[in-house]
Amino acid sequence: MPELPLDGCYESNPGPNSFDLAVIGGGTGGFAAALKAAGMGARIALIEREVIGGT
């Protein structure tokens, strides 16, 4: 998995109206959903407690 840029990433609580979609789980399905939605112009919050991309 390539390393992703962190431009626009948050490490704090950005507020309730900052995102159009919250994806919980950065495994293969969640990551693909986040990429697809971002490609369609949505502002995404991808929530993962470990490694993005799954195990």
Termini separation comes to 11 Å
Number of helices: 1
The number of distinct β-strands equals: 2
> What share of the residues does DSSP label as strand, in percent?
5-15%
Helix-strand category: alpha+beta
Write down the secondary-structure element order: EHE
Report the principal-axis shape.
globular
Unreliable residue runs: none
Largest sheet: 2 strands, parallel
Helix content: 10-25%
- Please compute the radius of gyration using only Cα atoms: 11 Å
Write down the overall mean pLDDT: 80
Strand order of the largest sheet: 1-2
Keywords for this entry:
55 residues, 1 helix, 2 strands, 22% helix, 15% strand
Would you mind describing this structure in some detail?
This protein is α+β, with helices and mostly antiparallel strands and 55 residues long. It has a domain at 18-45. 22% of the residues lie in helices and 15% in strands. A two-stranded parallel ribbon has the order 1-2. α1 links the parallel β1 and β2 (44-47). The mean pLDDT is 80.
